[in-house]
Amino acid sequence: MQYLTLNTFFFAELIIISITLLSFALRLRLRAYEKQTTLKILQTFRKKELPFFYSSGTIKQECFQTFFHLRPHLTLKLERHAMKNLNQAAKKVRFSLKKSPQNLRLQLLDAELSQLLEQKSDFTHLIENIVLPVFTPRALKAKYNYLKALNELYQTDMSSASYHLSSALKSYKKLNYLYEEAECYAALGHIYRITGVFDVADTMYREAQKIYTTLNLTAKIAETEAYLGIIEISRENYNQAQKYLKTAANIAQTNNLTKTLADINNRQVLAAFLNQDHKTAEKFYNNALKNGTPQAQAFAAEMLSKIMLKTNRPDKALKYADIALNLNQTLNHRAGIFETLYLKAEIFYLKENYNQAKKILTSLIQEKTPPSTLYYPANAYTMLGLIELKQNNLNKAKTLIKQALDLEHAKNRLKGAAIDYGNLAQIALLEKDEATAKTYLEQALAYAKTIDDQELITTLSLKANPQDILQSQK
C-alpha cells in the first residue's frame, strides 16, 4: 500500500492550479473570439433593412461550437439562416418542425419568425400553443416571455404584456443579451405610449436606442427615433414630432434604408397632415405608396384618401381608400380593414350616396371591433344619425346620436361627446324645442372647453344662440 506524501499533495495542487489556469485562459480566448465574431456579424446588420432576425444566444452557441470544433446542430443552422434570410428560413423551420414537433427551440423560432413577418394570426396560434417544460433554460424562457408579451400587446392586454416583458428583460440583463434587452425596452415603450404614459414611454425608447447605438444597428436607431416623434404626435406637439422624424429619416436615408425610410415618411406625413400641411403630406405618401412595405403602402393609401377628402377630391379619395382596403385585406389586418371601411363610408356620405354609406356603417356596427384600431363604433352611430337627419328622419337621428353619446361617455371621449351634443341641439331646434337645444349646446361647449379644443369651441360659439342655428338650417 502506498502512503500519501507531501509530494503527492504538492503535485495534486499543481495539477488543479494548471487546470484552473488553462480553463481561465480558454475562457478568455473564447470571450475574445465571441466579441470578434459578434462585431463581424453586427457589421452585416449595420445597414440591414427591417424586419430582421438577430439572436445573441445563437452567436454565443455558434462561437462555442466553432471554437471547440463541434458540429452545429440543425436548430442553430436554421437560426443562422434566419439571420440572413427570413422568408427562406421560415419555410425550412416549418418543414423541420414536422419531423421534430416537440423541439421547443424550433417552436420559439417559428413563432418569432411569424411575428417578424407580420403573420399575426399564425404567431398568435403558435405562441399560445407552446408549453414550457418544467426545466427550461433561462434564455428560452426569456424568449418565450418576450414573444408572449408581444402577443398580449396585440390583444391589448397591457398588464400581462408589461409583466412578461419585465420578466424577459430581467433574464436578458443577467444573460448579457444586449439586443434582446433593447427589444424589451422598445416593446415596453409601445405599451406606455399606447396607454398614454408618455414620459415613461420616452424613457423606454431612449434606453433601447442607447443599446442599438452601441450595437450600431442603424435601422433600429432610426426606428426608435421615429417612435419618439410618434409620442410627440400623441401629445399634439407636431413641430417637435417633425424634428424627431426628420432626424430618423436622415439616418435611414444616409444608410440607404429605403423601406425603413418609407415607413418613417409615413409618420412624417402624418405629422404634416395633422399640421394642415396637405401638400407636403401628399408628396411623402406618394413616395411611401411606391417604395414602402405592404403595411406602409396600406397606411399611405389610407392617408392619401384622407388628404383627397380634405381637399375636396372625393373620387380620388375613394380610389385610394379602395387601394388601402385591398392591401389590408391581403395582409389580414382587421384594424386597417375597419378603418378604411369607415373612411369609405365618410366618402360616400360627402358624395351624398347615403344608401352606400348606411350599408357600410351598419355592417361595421354588427361586427366585433378589433383591438388597436382608430375606428370607434360611436363614429358609425353618429354618421348614421347624420344621414337620418339629412333625410329628415328626426326620431331615428336622435336615437342613433344618443347611442353614439352613450359610447362616448363610456370611454370618456369628450370631443366626440361635445360633437354629439351639438348634433342633438340641432335636432332639438328642428323639433322647435329651443330650451332643450340650448341645454345641449351648453353641454357641448362645456366639454369643448374642458379639452381646450379651440376649433370646436369657435364652431359651437358661433351657434351659441339657438336662433343662429335655426337660420343656418334655412
Summarize the structure.
The protein has about 475 residues and is mostly helical.
Helices and strands, with pairings:
Layout: H1 6-45, H2 56-67, H3 74-84, H4 86-99, H5 104-116, H6 120-128, H7 138-154, H8 158-175, H9 178-194, H10 198-215, H11 218-234, H12 238-254, H13 258-274, H14 278-291, H15 294-310, H16 314-331, H17 334-350, H18 354-366, H19 377-390, H20 394-410, H21 414-430, H22 434-450, H23 454-461, H24 466-473
Helix pairs in contact: 1-2, 3-4, 4-5, 5-6, 5-7, 6-7, 7-8, 8-9, 9-10, 10-11, 11-12, 11-13, 12-13, 13-14, 13-15, 14-15, 15-16, 15-17, 16-17, 17-18, 18-19, 19-20, 19-21, 20-21, 21-22, 21-24, 22-23
Can you offer a commentary on this structure?
By secondary structure, the chain is an all-alpha fold. Among the domains are: 82 residues, no CATH class; 99 residues, Alpha Horseshoe (Serine Threonine Protein Phosphatase 5, Tetratricopeptide repeat), CATH 1.25.40.10. It has 24 helices and no strands. Helix 19 runs antiparallel to helix 20 and helix 20 packs antiparallel against helix 21. The longest helix is centred in the first third of the chain and has 40 residues. The radius of gyration is 29 Å and the shape is elongated. It starts with 5 loop residues before the first helix and ends with a helix. The C terminus is likely disordered.
